[in-house]
Amino acid sequence: MSIQLRPLLAVALSAAMIAPMVTRALAREVGDVQAVTRSAFGTPPNAAKEAKRLGDPVADHEWLETLSASGLKVRLADGSQLTLGADSKVLVDDFVYDPAGSDSDAAAKAAISLPLGFLRYVTGNMPKGHTVIDTPTATMTLRGTNVTVAVNQNGDTHLVVDEGRVTVVSKLTGQTMEVGPGSSTDINPEEIRKSEQDKSKPLGNDQRRGDHDGGKPAGSGAASSGDSGSDSSDSSDGGSSGG
Hints:
The protein is mostly beta strands. Helix content is 11%, strand content 43%. The chain has a 15-stranded mixed beta sheet that branches. The chain has a two-stranded antiparallel ribbon with strand order 16-17.
């Protein structure tokens, strides 16, 4: 290699190393990782997929995903808790929270997209009605809620409301239903219908997509209370106050 080419090569290598760091710095952080069970990944906008670890930031418009027998728990900027079960994928689609601002969408909104898998979402200080969970068959607006949502391979959605209220709209039929605490609902291409949940039995694998480590879904009440603060451990969800 000629002496003249060496400085050019050094500059090119430096630029290649700096580019990913600049991309991560430009991504707007909206939360952080609270717990990881086995294998979880994040893909921020305009960046490569990376393994998620305890304390890692989560960016707006970042894809989060888990593998088999895995789980991930994220705390968002308003205090909301997002927990992913196994074999799940979610997009933090549009998250804005300015506690000094008004209750408008420009100052406070959370849009979460779940194309496949299982999540639990406990709202924090986000104003009621400003958190929306989107699936292939439904749009769900949360009002002070603790909910679990599962989407199977066909895109069918199963919703369980533990606290608060949720307005469910079918993307395919336009049907609307209000779902209150203690109720569960199925949304498929034909209809929205209330479902009877036998609380003595866990949901099937196609519904929960979050069963792992002895059959306990990530973030379920079966886990010990409080965050463990370490990887490869399940953590329970906190209470809800807004969203």
